[in-house]
Structures are given as C-alpha cells and as structure tokens.
Amino acid sequence: MKRVLSLSAIFFLAFSATSQAQDEGEFKPFKVDVSLGYALPIGGTGGKGGALFVIEPKYAVLPQLSVGLRLEAAVTVAGVDMSTGSSNSTASAKAAASYLATADYYFSNADLRPFGGAGVGLFNTAGVAIESNNPNVAAGSNFGGMIRGGVEYKHLRIGVEYNFIPKSTVEPSSPSANDGYMIQNSYVGIKIGVCIGGGRL
Predict the structure, then answer these.
(1) What is the pLDDT of residue 88?
(2) Span 27-197: which CATH code?
(3) Can you give the residue ranges of every domain in the chain?
(4) Tally of CA atoms within 13 A in the half-sphere of 197 that contains its CB
(5) Cα–Cα–Cα angle for 159, 19, 109, rounded to 5 degrees
(6) Which of 14, 45, 69, 170 is 20 to 30 A from residue 176's alpha carbon, by CA?
(7) Does the model's pTM come out above 0.85?
C-alpha cells in the first residue's frame, strides 16, 4: 500500500511539473488583435463619444516584447475651441483613421498577462463643420502618438489607450471675421477584443 501511495505521489508530482512547464511555455510569435470599443474625445466643448474598430498584426521579437502595426478607425463628435469664446456651438461627427507602429511589453508569461505599450504614426482626420456661418472645415494628416495599458487572458484582450493628436485649425470665414476655431483631435479608446493566433507553442 505504501509503495502504491509512493508511486502515486511521484506520478502526481511529475504530472504537476509537466503541466506547469506547459503553462509557462512560450507563446507563438505572430498574432492579430481585433477589437471594438468606445472613443472618448478629450478637450474642447460639445464633444461626444463614439465607436472605434481596430486591427493590429503583431510579432513577438522577444518573449515579452511585441511590435506591430495598429490600423484603427474612430468616429466621434469632436470638441471645439471657438476663437470668439463661444461654448454653445455643436460640431458634426468626424472620423479619425490611424496607422501606428506599436510596441507592447508584457509583465508576465502566465495566461493572465498585464501589458503596457506605446505607438507613433499618422492620424488622418476628416473635416468637421459646426453650426455657424463659417463654411470652412479642417481635414488632413497629423503625426501623433499613443500610450496604453491593459491585460490579456488567453485570447481575450482588454485595454485603454490615450491618443495624442495635434489640434486642427479652421480658418476664419474672412480676414476680418472672428469665427475661426480649433478642433480637438485627441481621444481615449476603451477596447475589448480577441487575439487571433499567439497561443502557446
């Protein structure tokens, strides 16, 4: 009986060690993150949140460091800073498409993986018009950045990102007019999504 118990204990310890080794194994280097979320504009008056969608292919250059390319589209109602000091003007919805080179550092190799990351790249902002007599709109490309944090659990990803984008300027309707304004382009993204690929080896 003692021999059976001893053999059982040895088998259990061996099985536990093998399972732990499998749990702590490395992850496959390539994956694609696909997420949906909420985009909250920062600054100005009259801003309202909207939706965002992102696809981000990544490659782990080190077990805890991944680099990637974030392709994101976000639609919000932008906040506006009026040169006249008016705060009751309403902006139309605007879209921002971004193409960022990113890097994420994972603080753990367990199934639950907190991470922090950053990115830099190009933000394309669509034109925004407000309820005023100024027919001008602002649209163009801006170089900006992003910082983020979150957690992954197996193939589930949850994160929060702050996107730093320079303001856009809408020129006055005439040289003598005082109806120019600034559009706040920065926004916070709150996301939930899935990781396609990237499982353990």
Answers:
(1) 47
(2) 2.40.160.20
(3) 27-197
(4) 12
(5) 30
(6) 45
(7) no
